[in-house]
Amino acid sequence: MKVTFTAKEYAKLLELVWLGMQAAMGRQGPDKTSAKRYADLEQKLYDMATAQGCADMVTVGADGRLMMSEKVENDERLRKALGDYDNDTFWHELVNRMADRDLAAEQARHHAGGGGGPPINADMRLKQIEEAYWDEFEKNDLANLIFLKGGRG
């Protein structure tokens, strides 16, 4: 299969590869298993950069491997995209984990109390708890979040 790109399209592809590798590495760096899975493809695409008119986007790292240049790594648009991704991930993880925790506690109380009454519809209840957290965080951010070290709130 042969695919052709303009220099502008290839530049966008390289930006996308860099963003994808940032997500694959997370905070653990290039030795993370998910990042290693894509490393060869990343190198292949970086190696083609000069021929595609994007030589200024790639440089050789201290280890001899190709990497994105400072021009790309410091690009405000890309930094904003990464920041937005991190922010979105944070809020979704926080809401999901707190809702799961609260539902589990609710189910345990229901079970410990003899399970009287109708069983809890877990999917519906989880959605309600999540919506309550979203409402709270959208109104107040983290202002009302209290962390009880070693305690159960």
Can you give keywords for this protein?
mainly alpha, single chain, 153 residues
Describe it:
The chain has 153 residues and is mainly α. The protein has 5 helices and 2 strands; from the N terminus they run H-H-E-E-H-H-H. Strands 1-2 form a two-stranded antiparallel sheet. The longest helix is centred in the middle third of the chain and has 37 residues, at 76-112. The radius of gyration is 23 Å and the shape is elongated.
* Terminus-to-terminus distance: 59 Å
Widest beta sheet: strand line-up: 1-2
Largest sheet: 2 strands, antiparallel
- Helix count from the secondary structure assignment: 5
Poorly predicted spans:
none
Order of SSEs, N→C?
Answer: HHEEHHH
Number of strands: 2
Mean pLDDT: 92
Structural class: mainly alpha
Helix content: 55-70%
Based on Cα principal axes, name the global outline: elongated
Strand percentage lies at: under 5%
Topology:
Blueprint lengths: L6 H19 L7 H15 L10 E3 L5 E3 L1 H4 L2 H37 L9 H19 L13
Antiparallel strand pairs: 1-2
Helix pairs in contact: 1-2, 4-5
